């Protein structure tokens, strides 16, 4: 872990010296920003995100957001990150590193390991000062294969002015997505199995409409690809996620200083291997009160329809295909870039809340908790 | 008897309000070589949110801001961008960390704004209406609806 941290620092300093830093004050040739967060959580039994049934203090994230302007049309951006994953492992990674060529307002081309525009939070995945809670809505961001934060490939984007201050932003991307390692999902046949899927031949688009109403935007997303595995996991586990898929989602967002409102809905369909149909969504809001205080609320849900080796999931264990979460949070903003958060989450269903009993064991009668109560506490900073 | 008292009170009210300092206003400035003359509010918004990044001749637009606690910036944000400064900062934080754009450079003083605009062909900034621009190679823009 120590070596990873020093690797991160080394990358940062090397980046600083790639380009001339002796520009005049006030120039924007190179910019260095970053964010960090720390949190702990506890649940009343089931593991949910980084909250197990005993207090877990081991949840960190630190990243540097680096951007340099090569010339009027070319910029290079990179974000090294050091974070603790849900399996407890801490690693240094490159979140993204890509070059952007600006042909004009209507066309930018990005190539490399690029931030994914698929979800409202996918481009600001770990930037906690832009989130009302310590964790993202799991219905969209907790399932490997639905919304990820980067892709390896090429992307085209731009902004088109329509009329009367209506704008459309578009993104068209293609390449490969490496998904988060699946290790804590209660759907895994054996609890110690870890698999790391990828989505090959991925093509996706996003259309985002910005009406004249300030701070409002809405739009649709579509993506298709083929899920495969790099792993020697069991054939059952592999077959559950292998196969082509498509997904479509809609979103709406209204963000001002005082009020944050976000909502997304996702439809995910996969065939071959194991057919899987997911429908999920959330709505969340956060409101500033008394200047430094912010209250937040969220409702988050998911419904999955799939078969296990040709067999339907029995109704008795249908909680493994469901997720419904109510969350309430209270945040204190020490400064505009430093926030302390506390939240309570009540989760029904075991799609994301791992009871320590896998699906097969549950089908054969093992007992498990279907409702999970979680408290999360932590802080985020950005600079 | 009552009328003269009422009239006097009204006159005193006018005198008081006339004596109050006028609310700060702002003016938009560009480099002295930029002969654009006038811009609409909507085009100013597009420049300062970097939705449009080029002048008509294809050269780069370089918007610059005053610091966040400036009353002139607050007025500019509310009238042109139709958001308070804190909401604008939130917008730029999202743009920055999503890798889509970087915010305009911020300067502490209006003198720094004037010096930067006069030495950068594509620059566009704003300063207080009462700040003199004589001696600086800048043009004032007319803002149209």
Overview of the molecule:
The complex is a heterodimer of chains A (383) and B (145). With 383 residues, chain A is mostly beta strands. Helix content of chain A is 8%, strand content 54%. Chain A has one domain (2-21, 29-382): Porin (Beta Barrel). Chain A has a 16-stranded antiparallel barrel. Chain B has a single domain, classed as Periplasmic binding protein-like II (D-Maltodextrin-Binding Protein, domain 2). The N and C termini of chain B lie far apart (49 Å). At the A-B interface, β1, β4 and β6 of A face α2 and α4 of B.
Oligomer: heterodimer
Structural class of chain A: mainly beta
Tell me about the largest β-sheet of chain A.
Answer: 16 strands, antiparallel, barrel
Helix content of chain A: under 10%
Q: Classify the fold: give the CATH topology of chain B.
A: D-Maltodextrin-Binding Protein, domain 2
**Relative helix content of chain B:** 40-55%
The assigned CATH architecture of chain A is Beta Barrel
- Uncertain regions spanning at least 5 consecutive residues of chain A: 17-27
Provide mean pLDDT of chain A, rounded.
Answer: 83
Q: Main β-sheet of chain B: number of strands, strand sense, barrel status?
A: 6 strands, mixed
Gross morphology of chain B:
globular
- In CATH terms, the superfamily of chain B is Periplasmic binding protein-like II
Number of domains of chain B: 1
Return the average pLDDT of chain B rounded to an integer: 85
Physical arrangement of strands within the biggest beta sheet of chain A: 1-2-3-4-5-6-7-8-9-10-11-12-13-15-16-17
What Rg of chain A is obtained from the alpha carbons, in whole angstroms?
21 Å
